[in-house]
Specification:
heterodimer, A: mainly alpha, three-stranded antiparallel sheet, globular, B: alpha/beta, seven-stranded mixed sheet
Chain lengths: ~475, ~450
């Protein structure tokens, strides 16, 4: 033990007068709300959606899954140019991370990465479709490097089959660890270094295995956003028999495009489950329940440094537990429907139906962050390098945060959060039903096979709503 | 930190450029002065004769202290702006270098070390949460870094920190709590039941108030510790003895509104006198639903949140500079209630640092200058109520590095708080139990 830490521990023990206190936060107002009723109501809504599906003929469900309205022709998107602009912004942000404000709520890098991009852009991708396909900042520099330095005619290495989505799983797990467990992910200089290293790793991967394969299977954000885009009602190039090769934008039922992907390989299945496990664990790790299980006084929360080992274990355990329960539900369902031999491919086929749950909770969980830190983000662009600039005329302006301490605003936010969680689950139930009908042919077969998974989703609804209502710290 | 233009908040690499810019501006200001077209800020830059004084601001930007941190930052920005408009510290610009400690003791120590070794600041200031102060103090000693905390914990006065740790801008909890006993026993009753969270923060209240109460001839009817993770309190209210005259509460955390609501449901209109610490409701509108039961009850406040009939010109000046209205909320967002009973400590501490630098002739972070500064602070005895000390006059006890000030008892009247009593400084003072001045520097 380093001497400072040893001294510190001894001092903490010796010094009984440590009046640290937790602040009365928006959770204090949430605790005044009748959240128990919401939880029961929301859970029943998901249960009801499952029961209602039993009444709808399989043909109607199929029709819904295939329904599409052609909206307009997608104009030619200058992908490389957009990606180039995106990369330029990334470079500016990284420079701001290294050389700009040390206050994480004044530096545009952490605010852009954690709030605008990870929270906000993910939602935008789910609503508007595959924006990342052009906004990905690594396409342009890769293409430029290729043009400048690649040997003509030499093709990249073939992406090994056995590698599957495992690099994306590892990448996403590392990203989640950094976000949720690292002591200082908001530290701008630290984040700038991480973003630079990840950029270099991604460019190296693309260089070795080619743009398409690396982004489709190994680069965790492209994999994630690729799946998320399929949730969107707006899809591109999804119309058969377009002889002219035109790419049309079509309107579809949200998530219907996910159903068509088919069975995912094991690595991709675990990837999808990881996205839900991480965001759920982020919620769980701050609850009084989790803290008290570890003997931590939440009113005197000792900070992230003290939680590293416990939360690393929790994150992994949460993922393993979710994967185990999911696998159990799917295998039981297949066995129940008398198609036990299909269980393995069922796992891959149903995995993506988890995604709306993940996104619904993502929005709910990060909503207040988006509302508060989104304002700080805009303010940070006013003076991105802390040079006293006033680019947007926001100097001296303070973000509005009082809604977090206003009963009625907190009640409205909580209702929106609960709605997001419930809708995510209802959509998941519906998508699972669509997948089941595809695989089992009849409504009856689908329902029988789906029952255990539906139970899991209903329980998870309650869990998600409970996470939003229970007291938290940290 | 974007509000104060003259204040900087950047990584060390960035400062090189900034110094260049400041020098260039100073040169330009000289030329402008000659032509008589120099704006106000330029006048200040011209007055500069040497490098800025740089203070590391250890800010709870994230973690459980973030709400307090937000207001500590606003007050600090406002104070720095004023100090610089008034010519800085000893004619030198005051720059603030902010680092987030995540309200995390381990990171706190790292931040103090970073201030010393990377940012090379002159002093560090601004820490609020006690466990972060306790975690960071050894680093201050190791780097011989004057470390000014705004925490109200008793840890500094207890003698368990070190020669470099000061708390000159806010009274500690022992003094705050002790000073309440005379008025409470005289006006509310002598039989007190204390209900408090069952950990160090609550135990401090229990111990100091019990002792002060005994001195006033009062007695404890019951001590009711509440587990820190409790979310429903009704069962604990049943343990309040019927002959209780005063209920002393100091609950904190997300359960506090539920606590008050359930207390109201338990007592209805027949209740003992109720006395609490505003720590429970710092940053929370007293008119929030669920708090109706508190009407007519009393709170300790370090600085009155609501501007009342006894408002001083200094309080008025301070509110205006920080951007706080007469209800203790942000002018720009009137529902955003400030942490009014704590954040003045940042303001006052910066003015103490300014006075100490100017008194000691401190020039640069050399061992000799730091020694002079530490001794200068230790030699201070009184701070007069002023724009620099808007919370009120204070006595500073150099031996224990701790300031003592007036405290207020306010009554909830409808949807506001009105001061009914202001303690003397003496009410909270106790015999020092340590002497930092004997520690080597």
């Amino acid at each position: 033990m380093p001497p400072i830490v040893a001294g510190l521990s001894a001092l903490a023990l010796a010094c009984h007068t440590v009046p640290a206190w937790a602040h009365t936060s928006d959770r204090a107002f949430v605790m005044l709300l009748p959240t128990g009723y919401y939880n029961v109501g929301g859970t029943f809504a998901v249960l009801a959606s499952f029961l209602v599906l039993a009444l709808i003929p399989a043909t109607q469900i199929r029709r819904l899954a295939m329904a599409r309205v052609v909206l307009f022709e997608l104009p030619v998107v200058p992908t490389t140019a957009i990606s180039g602009a995106s990369f330029a912004i990334l470079v500016i942000l990284v420079a701001a991370g290294w050389f700009g404000a040390t206050d994480p709520l004044a530096n545009p890098l952490p605010l852009t990465v954690w709030t605008l991009w990870w929270v906000g852009f993910t939602i935008a991708q789910a609503v508007f479709g595959h924006l990342w396909a052009a906004l990905n900042p690594w396409l342009a520099p890769y293409r430029l490097l290729r043009r400048l330095f690649a040997t003509p005619g030499k093709r990249p290495l073939a992406y090994p089959d056995w590698l599957g989505h495992w690099p994306a799983v590892i990448g996403f797990a590392a990203f989640a660890w950094f976000e949720l467990i690292d002591p200082a992910p908001d530290n701008a200089a630290r984040l700038a270094t991480v973003a630079t290293l990840y950029t270099l790793a991604t460019l190296a991967g693309m260089w070795l295995f080619g743009e398409r394969d690396w982004l489709a299977q190994a680069e965790c954000f492209s994999v994630f956003f690729g799946f998320v885009a399929r949730l969107s009602p707006l899809q591109v190039g999804d119309v058969e028999a377009e002889p002219s090769g035109r790419r049309m934008v079509v309107l579809r039922w949200p998530g219907a495009a996910l159903v068509q992907i088919g069975a995912l390989p094991v690595s991709a299945t675990l990837f999808v489950l990881l996205t839900l496990a991480t965001v759920s664990f982020d919620g769980l790790s701050k609850t009084f329940l989790w803290l008290s299980l570890g003997g931590i006084n939440p009113l005197e929360f000792p900070g992230r440094s003290a939680m590293i080992e416990r939360n690393t274990f929790g994150l992994i355990a949460g993922w393993v537990a979710l994967a185990a329960v999911f696998a159990l539900a799917v295998v039981l369902g297949a066995a129940h429907a008398g198609r036990g031999s299909e269980a393995r491919s069922d796992l891959g086929a149903f995995a993506l139906t988890i995604l709306p749950i993940s996104l619904g909770y993502h929005l709910a969980h990060y909503l207040t962050t988006l509302l508060v830190n989104g304002q700080y983000a805009v303010r940070s662009f006013n003076d991105p390098f802390a040079l006293g600039w006033n680019l947007l005329g926001l100097s001296g302006r303070h973000p509005h945060v009082s809604f977090l301490a206003d009963y009625h605003a907190v009640a409205a936010i909580w209702a929106a959060q609960a709605a997001s969680v419930v809708l995510g689950h209802v959509l998941a139930i519906l998508l699972a039903h669509m997948v089941a009908i595809e695989r089992y042919g009849t409504t009856r077969g689908a329902l029988i096979s789906q029952l255990p998974l539906a139970v899991l989703m209903i329980v998870y609804t309650w869990f998600g709503l409970w996470l939003l209502a229970t007291p938290t710290a940290g | 930190m974007t509000d104060a233009k003259t204040n900087v908040n950047r990584s060390p690499r960035g400062n090189i450029t900034r110094r260049g810019v400041v020098k260039a501006l100073a040169a330009a200001a000289g030329a402008a002065a000659a032509t008589g077209v120099m704006p106000g800020t330029m006048r200040y830059i011209q007055a500069q004769t040497s490098a800025p004084i740089r203070i590391g601001f250890q800010l709870h930007r994230t973690g459980i202290g973030a709400t307090y941190g937000r207001w500590y930052e606003r007050v600090t920005s406002a104070a720095v702006k004023l100090i610089n408009q008034g010519g800085g510290i000893g004619g030198r610009e005051l720059q603030i270098v902010t680092e987030d400690d995540g309200t995390d003791p381990k990171r706190g120590a790292e931040v103090v070390a970073k201030f010393a070794t990377q940012h090379k600041v002159d002093f560090v200031f601004g820490t609020l949460f006690s466990h972060v102060v306790v975690g960071s103090s050894p680093a201050a000693a190791e780097h011989k870094m004057p470390y000014f905390v705004v925490s109200e914990g008793y840890h500094v006065a207890s003698g368990k920190m070190n020669r470099y740790v000061f708390q000159p801008g806010i009274t500690d909890v022992r003094a705050q709590v002790s000073s309440m006993a005379p008025w409470v026993t005289k006006n509310l009753g002598k039989k007190v039941t204390m209900i408090f969270p069952d950990y160090a923060f609550g135990h401090d209240h229990r111990d100091y108030f019990s002792a002060a109460l005994a001195k006033q001839g009062g007695s404890i009817a019951a001590l009711i510790p509440i587990p820190a993770t409790e979310t429903s309190f009704t069962k604990h209210f049943a343990r309040i003895p019927a002959d209780t005259e005063v209920l002393y509460h100091v609950m904190v955390g997300p359960g506090v509104l539920t606590f008050v609501k359930e207390m109201g449901e338990h007592f209805g209109s027949r209740r003992p006198q109720v006395f609490g610490f505003i720590d429970s409701l710092e940053g929370v509108d007293i008119a929030s639903p669920g708090l109706e039961f508190l009407d007519g009850s009393y709170f300790w406040e370090a600085m009155p949140r609501y501007a009342g009939k006894d408002q001083t010109a200094f309080d008025k000046f301070y509110r205006q500079a920080v951007g706080v209205n007469d209800s203790g909320a942000a002018v720009s967002d009137p529902k955003d209630v400030s942490t009014y009973s704590h954040m003045f400590g940042c303001w006052e501490t910066l003015y103490v640092i300014k006075a100490a630098v100017e008194k000691s002739g401190y020039k640069s972070p050399t061992a000799q200058d730091k020694k002079a500064l530490v001794e200068a602070v230790e030699s201070m005895t009184d701070f007069a109520e002023s724009n620099q000390h808007p919370q009120g006059a204070k006595k500073f006890v150099g031996r224990i590095h701790q300031a003592f000030g007036h405290q207020n008892i306010s009554k909830v009247n409808g949807k506001r708080l009105d001061v009914v009593h202001r303690t003397s400084i003496q009410d909270g003072m106790y015999e020092p139990e340590a002497d930092y001045t004997k520690m080597p520097l």
